[in-house]
Amino acid sequence: MTSDTKAPNCLLCKRPLRHVGEDFVRKQIYQCDQCDYVMTPVATTEDASAQYDDPEYFDGWGCNMEFDYDRFEPAVHEQVQQYLDFIKKHTRGKLLLDVGTGSGLLPHLARQAGFEVEGTDLSKHVSENLPVKGGFPVHHGALEEITFRRKYDVITMLHVLEHTSDPLSTLMRAREILNDEGYVVVVVPNYQSIDTRIKNLLSKLKLKSRPYKHLALGHHNYVFSMKSLGLLGRAAGLQVIYRTTTQPAWRSSALYSLFERYQLATWCWIVYQKEVRLTPQ
Ligand SMILES: [Zn+2]
Predict the structure, then answer these.
(1) Domains in the chain: boundaries
(2) What is the pLDDT of residues 10-25, one digit of tens each?
């Protein structure tokens, strides 16, 4: 499906989305100006599963499909360690579910740090092989489709929400399987990053050979900003308790620190909490 005539409605405010244009492979791009995100009409769940089922998907991300963590790129270890440090700093509780776990490096390191961990993944390869290698359970399928026997203190979705067909239902499902006062930690690309703004402008002015390639549509069905993440959380019954933008570990410099200061860096990092206990008056 590449050329829809009717614009889809916003999943948050329900208004029709504005058609922005199309990317270099003619993926249609729609935006909600009110809620501040872009999306492309979603591939079917079957298409997505097939894509992530392919073990080759993980090659080229500095990882490998044998879950041989010692052979992962040092930058990957550095990045995942940053996630873990962030989780330890901003959440409480030791029962952790890593949604879309992929290589499983995050739960692997979290387990070494004293967490009790589980994962989920759309990939059969991951859910069948990772438990043997990693020593923790991995549920197969989309979060909404899995039956869980327990609730969790911390649910992590690192580079996951932008891939889902319905991020709102994913967050609502996460809330359901959270303990009271549990946390959801989300990392996604930042639509309002300097990089994205510049590349959007170049694409609009037709100065890019492959317009809007940076949005990675097809892999990413949505590209969120801090504003849309806040609205999304609220709609799912989750409250934002911490937010920041960061550069990938392999792309940090003094200039980028400046971007981070003004929430213009490449990724949004956000911590939601299910219920925040009010401090006594
Ligand atoms: Zn909207």
Answers:
(1) 1-41+191-224, 45-188+247-273
(2) 999 999 999 999 999 9
How would residue 276 be classed by pLDDT, with cut points 50, 70 and 90?
A: low
How many Å lie between the centroid of ligand 1 and the Cα of residue 106? Answer: 33
Task: Give per-residue pLDDT as tens, 179-212.
Answer: 999 999 999 999 999 999 999 999 999 999 999 9
The pTM (predicted TM-score) of the whole model is 0.91
Between the CA of 269 and the centroid of ligand 1 the distance, in Å, is 21
Strands (E), the chain: 18-22, 28-32, 37-39, 95-98, 116-121, 138-140, 152-158, 178-189, 222-224, 239-246, 267-273
Average pLDDT over residues 138-143: 97
Q: Sign of the CA dihedral 222, 126, 98, 107?
A: negative
Ligand 1: centre distance to CA 32 (Å): 5
Q: Which residue type does 215 have?
A: L
Options 3.40.140.100, 3.40.50.150, 3.40.50.2000, 3.40.50.1000; which CATH number does 45-188+247-273 get? 3.40.50.150
Q: Are 130 and 101 in contact (CB under 8 A)?
A: yes
Report the Cα 267 to chain-centroid distance in Å: 10
The Å distance, Cα 188 to ligand 1 centre, comes to: 18
